Amino acid sequence: MSTRAARALVISGLIAALFAASSVASAADGAGAAGLARLQHAIQAAAREAYPVFSEDVAFSAAIKGYLGSIDAYSTYISPKEGELLRTSSSRDFAGVGMDVIQDHKGFLYCLPYAGSPAQQAGIGYGDMLRAIDGVQAEALPLQSVQGRIRGKEGSTVTLGVVGSEGLRERVLTRRRVVQPSVELLRDDAIARIRIVSFDQHTKGELLAALAPIPAGSPLILDVRGNVGGDLEVAADCAGFFLPDGALIVIMRKKNAASNALRVKTDVKAKVGPIVLWQDRFTASSAEVFCAALSQNKRGKTLGERSFGKGVTQRAMPAAGGGLYVITNAELLPPNGKSYDRKGLEPDLPLAQRTASTHQEFLRKSHEALKP
Question: What's the pLDDT tens digit per position in 318-354?
Fold first, then answer.
């Protein structure tokens, strides 16, 4: 059998499998079958005419990634190679550069370095756009792969291309271990301020520990600026520390399923007084759920800028042939039921953009809001 004939046979088998897999989903309107027919026609044309010889595996991976990417910027396909890189980079032998990376609904990537981290020390600014990792265009990669490529062996280097106030520049960073607690109690003012960096498996315990020394009835600032989210259930549980039992936290709306409402279910309550929540343009996802739950249940007032606007969740699932599918599977609605995805949450107490990065302005406005 010739190479071309063998290729055609493989392609025919792949298309047949695709038709079989989609038969149930497309039975209602036939759109799936019509789309696969168009794909089959393109594949057959390429098999006949394409020169030079190309990698069909790469082509099919690109097709899958393009199909999922048409859902939104967060849905994607992670190839087996990229998946292996993610697994390897999660090893205890690997380290990072001490920064979060967030992706907006247009696919742009932004850097949020931790204080004192290799990223900050190398001159990467808060909100700088990430353009390249070791010469590879960052925006062409899934967010998960971006995070995996930034990590590596402790002591090794990674070159990041970033765009900030100084324009496009490259920075060479040495990877090292950065221990960043998810919660910090800060005493830089008469009012206690708790900074919540992320919502992970340690956050609930760290938040309760930070609340413990604060006298009952005292005013409190909850600072979630730059918090890109994390575990939704952890964020909901943390909101529950400040809300009465039964209070609505968030509604999850899924395709072909009844909406699922998360409500407060905890006996552990913070005994603090009035609350102001600090948010900015990078307060996202689970952190937006946290802010909206307290604000819209009238337990606290949000202060700062319009939030990031990521009001959807994703599910990762094994892909045929290896790798992962990452698919947006639900929309998050705050207690008032109004969608904020791609829009963001307006603060109760807005700050002008030119002053929203000024710590003293946040403090001044907080004092005004917390006056008896």
Answer: 998 889 999 999 999 999 999 999 999 999 999 986 6
| Number of domains making up the chain | 3
Domain range for 111? 90-174
Are residues 305 and 264 located together in one domain of the fold? yes
User: Do 155 and 255 share a domain, yes or no?
Assistant: no
SS3 letters across the chain? CCHHHHHHHHHHHHHHHHHHHHCCCCCCCCHHHHHHHHHHHHHHHHHHHCCCCCCHHHHHHHHHHHHHHCCCCCCEEECHHHHHHHHHHCCCCEEECCEEEEECCCCCEEEEECCCCHHHHCCCCCCCEEEEECCEEHHHCCHHHHHHHHCEECCCEEEEEEEECCEEEEEEEECECCCCCCEEEECCCCCEEEEECCECCCHHHHHHHHHCCCCCCCCEEEECCCCCCECHHHHHHHHHCCCCCCCEEEEEEECCCCCEEEECCCCCCCCCCCEEEEECCCCCCHHHHHHHHHHHCCCEEEEECCCCCCCEEEEEEECCCCCEEEEEEEEEECCCCCCCCCCCCCCCEECCCCCCCCHHHHHHHHHHHCCC
Whether 322 is covered by a domain: the verdict is no
